[in-house]
Amino acid sequence: MKKAETSLIPQETIEGKILLIRGKKVMIDRDLAMLYGVTTGNLNKAVRRNIERFPGDFMFQLSKDEYDSLRFQIGILKKGQHSKYLPQAFTQEGVAMLSGVLNSKRAVQVNIQIMRAFVKLREILSTNKELAHKLSQLERKIEKHDVEIQAIFKAIRQLMTPPEKPKGKIGFSIDKK
């Protein structure tokens, strides 16, 4: 398949729709419906008709607080565009399951792009974890070297200070010869 055929939607657009909620990378039903070219209602109807395909680790409904937080943080809905129901959040596995529920060529092609976006994010996160680990190792080495360097400076300072002259006795002394 040619690259142009699979790029219905810019990768950055898809990556921007992936959110972190409850410690999981998810996509909201409204965003998925827009990407698939269907209404949110139709997407959710298809999911409800096949609910056995969507266990709790594939899909969950946002709480009122999570929904309000999302609306506040990224402006999901503009004033006057309120949903009657709380949105559904789909994990990577849930999004993969959607391609079987929505039977269209576009759904399959969009799913491929979404899966690539999830994989790319996972790679970025693992690279960042690896970098953080290497950075902490480097910091420990530097701390060890700092202690050693401080000891070297202390030894050099001791060598640089002139030896103390023996103090003479105060008073008269008589030489006995």
Automatic annotation (TrEMBL):
Annotated ranges, domain KilA-N DNA-binding: 17-101
Taking the record's annotation, the residue ranges forming a coiled coil are 121-155
* InterPro entries on file: KilA-N_DNA-bd_domain
A Pfam family: ORF6N
What keywords tag this UniProt record?
Coiled coil
- Know the name of this protein? ORF6N domain protein
What is the source species? Candidatus Scalindua rubra
